[in-house]
Amino acid sequence: MKRALAEHGFTPWPGRHDAVALAELERLFDAMPADRSGLRIAPGDAARLSACRAISDDVRHVIGAAARPVRALLFDKRDASNWALGWHQDRTIEVAERVDVPGYGPWTVKQGRLHVAPPIDVLEVMLTVRLHLDPVGPHNAPIEVAPGSHRLGLVAEDFIPDVVARCGTATCLSQAGSVWFYATPILHASARSAPGLRRRVLQMDFAATDLPGGLRWAADHA
Q1: What distance separates the 2 farthest-apart alpha carbons in the chain?
Q2: Where are the alpha helices (DSSP H) in the chain?
């Protein structure tokens, strides 16, 4: 897994979560407001899930013994709330409070949670994990990635189409209970789900390092 992530920027987790773990995960989505397609939750709430504990050894093997979830998001694509996502990189992290440190910015607030764009070297040692509650076939908005794009630093938006064309694309299909590991800076995209389908995903960002200059991960402050 570690070699595949370093070379390609993505790899499936070799296991698959059972019905008990999926039922526990489903309860998180049951608590989502009906008008929300995405919800940011406390990373500690995600860390307590049996599904998260099951992957923890592999996460630590990839990025280090101090690895812990530092951001967690629920995504629920369905007929009532459907969207497409163009090619992009995830570029922000969730922090406890604003501390002005060179290289960090701009600052944003997302669903009441403070975020900042860090230098690329912070993102390059992070790991993004997606846990799938529903089967994700070719018509249920699978994540597409540009293999190797995680090794190209921050890609300016104007150059993203050229980078995707040069790297090519891969589609990450899933079964219920499947897990994918991604290098956090990898270029990725997804289409809308087809009518009648539902795609629920828990996405977690993991880090094994502390932040500089008095900045703190929000998860470490909880």
Answers
A1: 49
A2: 2-8, 19-30, 43-47, 50-63, 120-124, 160-167, 218-221
Task: Please state the domain count of the chain.
Answer: 1
Residue 149 inside a domain? The answer is yes
Instruction: Supply 114's token pair.
Output: 């403070």
Segment 35-52 shows an average pLDDT of 89
- Within 10 A of 173 (CB to CB), how many other CB atoms are there? 15
Q: Does residue 130 form part of some domain?
A: yes
Q: How does residue 30 score in pLDDT terms, banded at 50, 70 and 90?
A: confident
For residue 148, pLDDT beyond 80: yes
Give the range of the structural domain holding residue 181, as residue numbers without chain letter.
Answer: 2-90+120-208
- Whether 184 contacts 205, CB under 8 Å: yes
Residue 98, in any domain of the structure: no
What is the Cα–Cα distance from 65 to 57, expressed in whole angstroms? 9
CATH code for position 186: 2.60.120.620
E strands in the chain = 10-12, 38-41, 68-77, 85-88, 93-94, 107-110, 113-116, 127-132, 143-145, 170-172, 179-183, 188-190, 199-207
pTM (2 d.p.): 0.96
- Residues 30-35: what's their mean pLDDT? 79
Distance CA 147, CA 130 (A): 17
